[in-house]
Each structure stands twice: as C-alpha cells, then as structure tokens.
Amino acid sequence: MGVRRVVASAGVELDVVEAGTPGNPVVVLLHGFPESSHSWRHQLGPLADAGYHVLAPDQRGYAGSSAPTEIGAYRADHLTNDVCALLDDVDAEQAVIVGHDWGALVAWHMAELHPDRCRAVLAASVPYTHWTAPPIQVFEAIHGDRFFYILYFQEPGVAEVELDADTERFLLSIIWVAAGETAGASLGSRLPAAGTKLVESFEHQLGRRPDAPPPWLPQADFDVYVEQFRQSGFFGPVSWYRNFDANYELVRHVDPATLPMPTAFVAGENDPVIARPGMVESMEAILPNHLDSTLIPGAGHWVQQEAPDQFNDWLLGILSSI
C-alpha cells in the first residue's frame, strides 16, 4: 500500500503515501471530496508494479495534512504549488497528474498554471470546463431557489458545523447519492428548497437514510474516512469550494487551445457530475491533445473505488500510450 511520509510545502505539511521506485516516471494521484489518499488504495500497487513512482498526498485540509484557517489558503495557486512541491521533493521535472473529483480540478489547474510540470493530465469524474463567467454566478442562475450543495458551502461556518456534528451520517449520504447503484435514480429527483441542510438534501434524493456503505466500500475502509474527517474537520475541505470564483480569476486568461500536454478523461457512466449533455464531448473540441474519454459501465462518481480493475486497465493503458 505504500510508505507514508511528510512533505513540506510553503508553510504546510502534506502527508503523502509513496509507492514504487524513486527515479522511475512519477505519477501523482490527487483525491477529491470527501476522500483522502486512501481513495487510491487500489491503484498504488498496480502503478508501482508497472514501473511508476507514485505519490498520493492527503491534500491540504485533509486527514493529517496541515489545515490552514484562512479560506484563501485553499485557492488553486496554493493547491497546485503543493503539487509542484511534491515534484521538487523527488527531483522530478514533470509528472503525470491524475486527479479525481476536486483532485481533477487541481489537475486541470496544474495544466493551466504549471504546464511545464505536466507530462500529462488525466482526470476522473470532473471534465475540463472553460468557464465564461464566475462559477458561483452560473450555479445561482441554474439552480435558483432550489438547494445546491456548492451554493450551501459558500457561507463560512454553516456547512462545516453541520458536517462536523455527524460525520458518519454525512459520508454515508454523499457516498450513496453519487454511487453507481443509486446515482442514476437520484438524478431525476426534485431537489428540496433552499434552506435545507446538506444531509437532508442527499437523503431526500435517495429516499432513505443509509445505515451502511455500499458493497464496494468495505466497512473498514469507510471507517478510515470517518476517522480522518473527525481528525481534520470540514472547514478546509469545504473552503476549497469557497474559492471557485477566485480560481476563475486566476485562470480565466488561459486559452485551453494552448495547453500542450496529453489529456484524457474517465468517469462512471452513472456519475451525476457528468449528467449535463455535452460536458464530456466538449473536451475533444477544446483540448488540442485529448487522447480519450471513457465511461465505465455501471460505475458512479467514486469510479476508481467502485470499478478498480476497469479503472486500472484504463489508467495503465493511457500511461503506456504516452
């Protein structure tokens, strides 16, 4: 499963799981919300066995890594600088950056802000999006007075209080609502009105309150996440969402047609994040070296955990082609 160590980056310390042989080509695995490096447990061994030097950090605000108390500390320039610090720590000029969920957003921001450090960018579950207006403004226009979790996350001191109060219930609700078993059914559910709490919203979409994780997530692995979030709290992870507009300002000048590195995308076919028509297809039109977009049948948002064998076959295939 790899060796855990600490890497310093601009005043923060990152817990990193490392696998494979130093000096081999570097692959960085960036987790999403609400996860940690543990979400890559199925990929560390196969990548190391295939000859890669793998780095999977608990990103800032998560698990045992440093959790700054300022919202701006979770802006994309700081998150990508953390990735660069990982590369500097192992004397690597470049790496293949693989990201899932928010990790995919960081991977895309690496392409925009540090293209020289990216041998390739491989994203899971969140396609590249070139925003033409501040994202929060777009979300408000789309959702109006209906509940939407990213808008709920914007007010400091609200979401994190709810999530810290019952970590296990929140994790069960968000895992199930985006899992392949139920995500397809939940997409058509009417969202509750604004003012609803987050867990209530997810349970409303599910039509029930889950009492155990899905079958692809053993209880012992679920318990790892619960303990990690009880340790870290949710201020840091939720504050990533509070920087959507700040991140937009950082990269709005970047023309995606100028991104030179190979890119590829994978998601579960039942992932609610890709439900909007054209999201996946648009990458082929706007990214000049886009190699592949693959949807894994039956899987939902947690694709590398729900379908690890299919995900690993895809990942190793893309790596071998570049």
Major sheet size, sense and barrel closure: 8 strands, mixed
- Rg from C-alpha positions? 18 Å
- Helix content percent band: 40-55%
H and E order: EEEHEHEHEHHHHHHHHHEHEHH
CATH class of the largest domain: Alpha Beta
SS-derived structural category = alpha/beta
Determine the strand fraction and express it as a percent band: 15-25%
Specify the number of helices: 15
* Low-pLDDT regions: none
Shape: globular
Q: What is the total domain count?
A: 2
> Mind telling me the CATH superfamily name of the largest domain?
Alpha/Beta hydrolase fold, catalytic domain
- CA distance, first residue to last residue: 25 Å
**Number of distinct beta strands:** 8
At CATH level 3, the topology of the largest domain is Rossmann fold
Question: What is the residue-mean pLDDT, rounded to a whole number?
Answer: 94
What is the level-2 CATH architecture name of the largest domain?
Answer: 3-Layer(aba) Sandwich
Q: Enumerate the strands of the largest sheet in spatial order, edge to edge or round the barrel.
A: 1-2-4-3-5-6-7-8
